[in-house]
Amino acid sequence: MYSENNKKQINHWYDVTELIRNSKEENENVKYDKEEKSDKRKDCGELSAEGEELTSRRRRCRGIKGEMGATGATGATGATGATGRKGERGKAAKIKVGKVNTVSSEDKADVINVGTENEAILDFYIPRGKAGKNAERPTLLVTSNEEEQTSSDKCGLIFGCNDLVTDSGIYHNEYSSDIVINEEGIYKIAFHGEALANKERTLPENVTVGIMLNEAPVKSGAMCHRFNCCDENAAFVLDTIIKADRGDIIRIEVSNEGYKFKNVGLTVLKLG
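Given the sequence above, the corresponding structure tokens read:
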């Protein structure tokens, strides 16, 4: 039989042995955990010294890429930005007209700046008008007389050559005073001439030149001039519109005889 003292020693020995065994097991477990963690870090490339191996191992540790999520809602409009600074004052522009060109009626009108932005020179290109179709020729008479002639009482001034006659609607026998209307209508009458005072008459004196229609004066077709001296010249100009019937006669008469006229001209145009 063991003594009481031996029993205590044996129990103490068992306690120490159990403590050592437990300590070894704990150390083994800690070592295993460290090795396992180290292996995991190595598999993920965390302990790799080279960048390519580290990247490759990290990629192998990632999961499968998920599907793209839905687009998010549009955000609210941001606040208005600050007003920019005022720009510099521009140069004053100058514009001049360059050439005006007539182009074909098939071309389009155009304006081209051959100058600069601040000193523009504009060339214009204007299409020629197209020829009219079935245009009616106007009824027109133009007659004149450059030779000097003396006015006579109740006699019209003489017109020589017919410078222009378009048709038979107006008739004038050259070197006569009468203009014959062959078509009823509205006519424009225009006269011009130069007059020299009559030295044999007592001056001052008023002289009237007027348009006569069938021996009757046309009220809107007369002009009066007062001659004050014998060497005085005067220009007479008449322009009026009348209504004339077929067979009417137009004449230019002078109220006083003995006055010298030259460079006279008469135009008769049918308006409608």
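The longest strand covers residues 185-196. Try to locate this feature in the token string yourself.
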